[in-house]
Amino acid sequence: MSSDPPASSRPGTPAPPSSPAPPHDLEALLELLRRGFPTLSTQFQGGARYLLDHPQDVPVLSMRKIAASAGVQPATLVRLSQHLGFEGWQAMRELFVDALRGGAQPYARRARKVVRESSASRMLGEMLEAQHHNLDRIAASNEKTLPQAAELLSHAACVHVAGFRACFPIAFTFHYVYRLFRSTVHLIRADAGTLEMELRGLAPKDAVVVVSFAPYSQESIRVAEAARECGCKVIALTDSTVAPIALAADCTLLFSVESPSFFPSITAGVAVVEALVEQLLARKGKGAIRALEQAEGELHRTGAYVTPGHG
């Protein structure tokens, strides 16, 4: 006596739905989580929120510690991984590990490579080629977001700017140039441990520009979190859409820091803020021109510049 064929092989029986193909890299995974977050169960949302907010923790912490921090059971992370098309937690975790491996290397390790492999005759050419590549990527990465950032900043009551360590020159450039025609621009410096005091000045109608690239500074994350808690609009200038400051930002501007040298390049970051200030000036129009003329005249009157013939 023959047994009945399985249901899936009977005529007219629809095939069972296949599992979705898992994302191929970390950026695609986090975008999938952001896009599908509202449709997830409460438990899955708890796990997804932690992955989105703390991607840097996944390669270095155990699944149990991540689950405890997220307020869910370890099994929830396993089921969430499978829901996203992975065989299990470890398969999904590999995307976070791969992203970490491809991230910023320690400066000393990069310096050893420069000393070992580079020669004076080719260093300049390699550097210029890297800078051209970084600058070419700006337009494609920010064509839509630059106008959005300018819109947010134009409507803010005050603008606060923060960038620490290697990111400080980018933040300072934006603050200095923007302040030439807008007085309500403030630089968060955190001198002598005063960061918390400076963050008290944030208000709900303000906008906060935070600059950070890998390795991401703790101060930049604190500024972004404080700005979000205060109800400020947050504009992130960073090297990745999954950078800690970008995950909760209202607008993200991207720039590449690739360099053949041991230290990340800030050239493209400076170019992005220059392009942003240009759009802000154009938006303000004649009012910006009057303010700029007044600031420039004051600089000349106070002797800030050398007068021709008086070296």
Automatic annotation (TrEMBL):
InterPro entries for this protein: Homeodomain-like_sf (IPR009057), HTH_RpiR (IPR000281), RpiR-like (IPR047640), RpiR-like_SIS (IPR035472), SIS_dom (IPR001347), SIS_dom_sf (IPR046348), WH-like_DNA-bd_sf (IPR036388)
Biased composition (Pro residues): 13-23
HTH rpiR-type domain boundaries: 27-103
Highest taxon of the lineage: Bacteria
Molecular functions per Gene Ontology: carbohydrate derivative binding; DNA binding; DNA-binding transcription factor activity
Transcription regulation among keywords: yes
Protein name (Swiss-Prot/TrEMBL): DNA-binding MurR/RpiR family transcriptional regulator
Organism lineage: Bacteria, Pseudomonadati, Pseudomonadota, Betaproteobacteria, Burkholderiales
